[in-house]
Amino acid sequence: MDYLPVFLNLAGRRVLVVGGGAVGARKVELLLKAHAQVRVVAPALHAELALFRDAGRIEHIGAPFEPHHLDGAVFALAATDRPEVNRAVAAAAAERGLFVNVVDSDADSSCVMPAIIDRSPVIVAVGTGGHAPVLARRLRAQLEALLPERLGELARLAGRVRERVHRLLPDLIARRRFWERLFAGRVASQVLAGHGAAAEQLLEQELGQLQSPRAERVHGSDAAGAARTRAGEVYLIGAGPGDPDLLTLRAQQLLQQADVVLYDRLVSAAVVARARRDAERVYVGKEPGRHDITQERIHALLLEYAARGLRVARLKGGDPLVFGRGGEEVEVLRRAGVPIVIVPGVTAALGAAASAELPLTQRGLSQAVTLVTAVGEGAERLDWRALAAPLHTAVFYMGIAQLPRIVEQLLAHGAPPERAAAIIERATLPEQRVLSAPLGELLRRASTALIRAPALLIVGDVAAQARATLGAHAFPQNVKDMARA
Ligand code: SAH
User: Fold this and answer.
1) Three-state DSSP class for residue 331
2) Is 243 near ligand 1, meaning CB less than 6 Å away?
3) Per-residue pLDDT tens over the stretch 114-132
4) Which of 118, 151, 191, 470 can bridge 435 by disulfide, Cβ–Cβ 3.0-4.6 Å?
């Protein structure tokens, strides 16, 4: 190990920064975050540093560096663009036994500034001993995506009850197990999802259990035994339209911790593959027209797994609250008191629009978007006139089987046959196909192309802009011009 990582407590301590340019400004910003007393030596100051000086947040010496500027400093940074000045700073600091960092020169530095991921009070520092700063930055980007935004909040919550836990669990091993479970369980997932109050409540419950006489036994027993005595939780996760890279960061974080994954028919294999390797995977898809598993059975399974103390990921195609019956599952879980985290997903309409390069709203072409399904009892009562109106985009979910009826209704309620429409089949997946045709020709073209579910129908002038893989030239030039205007 060439370097020992340490975290410096600089609060109220003086740090000298020599150099008043953009690089110096970045370092000063960081030092101020760490509550250091910053003294900047530079003949001229970068605009941002001038603001800090005017606000009285830094001390500025507008003269060339001299060793006595180091008086009272515990640490020094040289960030000028003149190597001889940087070296002079390094030499003067070394003489006084101070650590010094010279920007872009490891040879002159006695310490290296790491790349950091700041989730204060949690801080991750990445260093490559000066060998590959760009590699450190790449690692930083990867860790940024991996570490939840509210990790710091979780640490603070733990800090608040640390002494209490210490009193309740004097045994070191029991205590460690308690924390392990806390950080992997529902208190943590509620904090990270932004439900601070719910998390505090759950934490109180867990601490309450420690006080009960049963607690010792639970903590002394094996993990499975501990799991049985406590309830789990359910993550209702939007899996997006298919491309796994469209999962949100939170979806990926929770998929990595779920013990069991219940997934629908429209969840792509690539998304299911992002779950933890040893998670149990349960297919609960409902084939159209067939009813191999009922919604009630899914509710029962969710409750059953949660009651066993498991962390259950319920993966739904697109967004869980858009035509996904997510509302019913939430209601059942709420009634049973099972903690829930809902993670939004990219709904099919948004995925399809992006991958067909078709705007859903556009000045002068569409003022509103409706996500609609013509399946089910409500279909007769839909406001077809509104769906057929100009300056509007209607996105039909589950519409392929109903295509003839949808087209007929739109035409009957005022949509002209030349109104643009697009069908996007298997949006965002490698097999995606996009058919673009005016409403009047849509049925014929869709049946020739053998369009299959899952597919979305988008109706509105904006649809003429779809980058079609089928029938790209279906529109008269004037319609396309209109769409691009
Ligand atoms: N909750 C989902 C929708 C479920 S309803 C969401 O928010 O996207 C199922 C319908 O969604 C399908 O019949 C189809 O119309 C649409 N759909 C889902 N995934 C799709 C995809 N990859 N491409 C096109 N349509 C899709």
Assistant:
1) helix
2) no
3) 999 999 999 999 999 888 8
4) 470
- Known catalytic residue: 222? no
Fold of the domain spanning 14-113: Rossmann fold (3.40.50)
The per-residue pLDDT for range 124-166, each reduced to its tens digit, is 999 998 888 889 989 999 999 889 999 999 999 999 999 999 9
Amino acid making up residue 416: P
Q: pLDDT, tens digit, for every residue of 324-348?
A: 999 999 999 999 999 999 999 999 9
Classify domain 349-484 at the CATH topology level. Answer: 3.30.950
- Is the Cβ atom of 427 under 6 angstroms away from ligand 1? yes
CATH number of the domain at 233-346, please?
3.40.1010.10
The listed CATH number (1.10.10, 1.20.120, 1.10.20, 1.10.8) that belongs to domain 151-226: 1.10.8
Specify whether the CB–CB gap between 230 and 184 falls below 8 A: no
Name the residue ranges covered by the structural domains of the chain.
14-113, 151-226, 233-346, 349-484
pLDDT tens-digit map of 209-249? 888 755 444 444 444 444 444 679 999 999 999 999 999 99
Sheet with 433-438, strands from edge to edge, namely 368-373, 392-397, 455-459, 420-425, 433-438
pTM of the full structure:
0.81
Give the dihedral sign, CA 346/347/348/350.
negative
Query: Which of 259, 264, 319, 461 does the annotation list as catalytic?
Result: 264
Whether omega before 121 lies within 30 degrees of 0, making that bond cis, reads yes
- Identify the residue whose C-alpha is closest to ligand 1 atom 5: 323
